[in-house]
# Entry
Amino acid sequence: MDKILILDFGSQYTQLIGRRVRELGVYSEIIPGDSPLSETHVKECTGIILSGSPFSAYEPDAPIIHSSVYDCGLPILGVCYGIQRMTLDARGRVAKLAEREYGKKTVAVRAGIEDPLLKGISPSFVSWMSHGDSIVSPGEGWEVIGDSDGNIPAILRHTKLARWGVQFHPEVSHCEFGTLLLSNFVFGICKTKAGWSMQAYLDQEADKIRTAIQDRPALLLISGGVDSTVAGAFLLRVLGPEQVYLLYIDTGLMRKAESEEVMANLARLGAKHLYKADAEARFLSALAGVTDPEKKRRIIGDMFITVQEEEVQRLALKDAFLVQGTLYTDLIESGKGVGKKAQVIKSHHNVRSPLVEEKRRKGLVIEPLDRLYKDEVRALGRLLGLPESVVGRHPFPGPGLGVRILGAVDREKCDILRNADAVFIQKLRELGLYDKIWQAFCVLLPVRSVGVAGDERKYGYVAALRAVTSEDGMTAQVYPFDAADLIAISSAITNRVPEIGRVVYDVSSKPPATIEWE
# Structure
């Protein structure tokens, strides 16, 4: 099938570009930004998109574009860093802005400009910016055809070659006409034919898994969330129940009644080999007194693998493959994007754990969802026949409550947070809001505040509520609760969870914040 090639220079949004292209029904492949293009690449793809980057294009160690990209003759669209890099390569000038352009910014197309990239797009629209540098003078053969506020170049095109560039991020959902701009490039300019679907992804991954695993056992660590449950259903579909072993590790860091619900859901999948390991005491002991969030994630990740290895020995699963429900967002935030320039936002235990890394180096880790976003995983789950009660659940992090209790973790705090979170979710369901929110949860803060219970002074914990809307988890907006609903939720939590004396609401969007607090 036709495909678009995406060169990754380390941007947090690179895979989001690929996702948008896939939404158009076109297959996309991501390779490191400085990679040379092979004959196969040129033969199979119809166009190239250059991603953004955390680097400034003029820095000595900034990633460069291989000459084969320019020589291939394919249409090129540079996004943010991509157009800055092309500008420098064409002897233009890029410099640091006096004030960073970030967030929603108006872009105006210059008068009299008509261009296939802008077909159907308003002459003035709201873009999404995230850069600290600007193009001061275009490269040779380039011209500016659109500007942001302050006459800063925002859209450029080459006067002779099939090359374009935008200083904003059309792949981000906040960007007005962003999908149309990408569609114009993919279909109008590159003449790409649609041929990508979730069924195609399932078929491709199924072939990869069968080839890699063959007749050896596959052990999937189940957290009980959407990702691992879909991965389990995927494995059972591809390999059959005889070859698949599902292991649920009860860490003591789960939500209220989570373990019972998880085991019931897994049993419904038709799993023949389903096991539960009770490891609460071991996890809490390992976490005792630890406050650093990255260290907590590493401890939890290593303990997962340690328990898993012990269970492998107990079950006599020699040379078993470890299967994980890792998503691409996990890889991106853990600095494990395609190229070598990716930044670490936060380490996911299933990605950066040294024990997981060791198994990955040995080729014993299979991650069938590692090129998908959360909404795509849900679509795959529906394709596999999972009920909406499973695929529609709010995301839950692998480290569980360990990263929702800020500071040291212990059993008492876990119980307090479990109860508060259960009240929060119950109230959302009662108010008819659960399905309108992408993710909602409570965070237990490492502070206490003075309050009054009856006629007595109370020194209780503070719980922070988090509720966001999102399409893919890469960007998120705060859910705009009615004040009356927030008050009702707060009252329910403080009335039913006596240890909590105060409730606050987190109004931070992503970016700049992440969805989880740790």
